[in-house]
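The material for today's practical consists of a large collection of protein records. Backbone structure tokens are a discrete shorthand for how the chain folds in space. An example says more than a description, so a record of this kind follows:
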Amino acid sequence: MDKKQARLRRARKTRAKIAELKMVRLAVCRTNSHIYAQIFSGCGTKVLAAASTAEADVRSKVANGGNVDAAKLVGQLIATRAKDAGVETVAFDRSGFHYHGRIKALAEAAREGGLKF
């Protein structure tokens, strides 16, 4: 089993539990150059809010989209957009990534922004 298969196995277990609970989900995707966050509805079919370092206004604030500072900015942004959409409590779907580094920074910034998970 390579790294990608192990990550996808971890993601499948987490997503199965979140789908069983029918909770609103904060999903995070991490690449080398960017980090993306989306909030999905309880049924999993609608995107309620989204934020990423690929957006023009975020790229103007950070020099590199693949570092911890950029992840903190995306975490704050997704928290404000979620509150605007009327979402306060979410389940954190880290997509199988380890809770460390950029994923941790995004989660803590979202918590500071008012999201509960």
The chain is about 45% helix and 20% strand. The chain has a mean pLDDT of 95. The first strand starts at residue 25 and ends at 30. The helical segments are 3-21, 56-61, 68-84, 102-112.
